[in-house]
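Narrative of activities, Objective 1.

The group set out to show that a structural description can be obtained from nothing but a protein's sequence at a throughput compatible with the screening campaign. Below is one input-output pair from the validation batch, recorded exactly as produced.
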Amino acid sequence: MWRNDSSRKKSSSKQTLKERDVRHVRIEDVSALYEIYEFQEEIGHGSFGIVVSVVEKQTNENYAVKIVNKYSTVVHQLSKVYREIKILKTVNHPNIVYLYKVFESAKKIYMVMERCRGNLKEVFENKKPFSEKTTKKIIKQLANAVYYLHKNQIVHRDIKMENILLSKNPDNPTDLYFIKLSDFGLSVIKAGSFIQGMMHDRCGTMLYMAPEILLERTYSELCDVWSIGIILYTLLCAKYPFADRHQEELINQICSKDPDYSPIELTPDAVDLLKCILVKDPVQRSTALEILKHPWLMEHKLKSRKDETIIDYMKKWKSEMLLPGHDSDWMKISESDISMLTGLSINIGTTNSMKSGTSHV
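Output recorded for this entry:
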């Protein structure tokens, strides 16, 4: 199994994003918005509100407005809405939905965001399964967005196909799969690194939830990576890796069973990436950055290592074996030793190596 542990330290470097200059305007009631926007049909719903299509009268630009009723939202849920606004005011990434303005009255909150043309789940239901080429395009964008969030101490916690919107690609108008990650209603900004950054509350959508969340253990941002794996498998295989109408059996599958790869006609690289992501133990699970560096997305083939010998393997690490100011011990191995070792083969191609460190990124 492919592994790039060196990216874990780099991906965990803490960064602080500054809030963008997003207008947050207090209004008396919705009539103030009717002067600015023409309200159209409801196009969806988020974690704590409905989403309506609007057209700005002055510019004729299309937007989506998420409307949250403050009185029908309990206090602790309302705090999550303000947290979502804080996160969206901060992030700025081509594959994350963009927040333009916020209007707030005594009764409601209106979040004006970019208008997209639907979500991935709707398209998937009509075109499943997706080709590896199309899936690569989607997963690469999604992993990029998630890596950006994690690098900036943000965990989404509800990544699913319904929350992946399809938008216009400013660089390629013919691109049908330019994605935007949306709905940050369950997202959090980590309190710190390592233990301080771990989370405890059980939330998300069960089909996409990581085992550690379902088992009510502390968990890290790697719960988002698990969700990427669920989407990757589903797009390629036209079915969820774990599915059951009964919640108890679904939890059992997610926590104790492996996905079925046997009837699936996928390239070895695609299967390898799935096996790097859908790992029960988050300590061994790939990070978002490691996904981006995987051969399946890097467009170079994963070399088979089944027939490698110890000699071949040691040659790869020759530079690391050489101490400063010394000749390599490798160079001192005798011909007879080489003759003996060459006959031994090792299989490191399917070994799931334990990652260094802990699950606290």
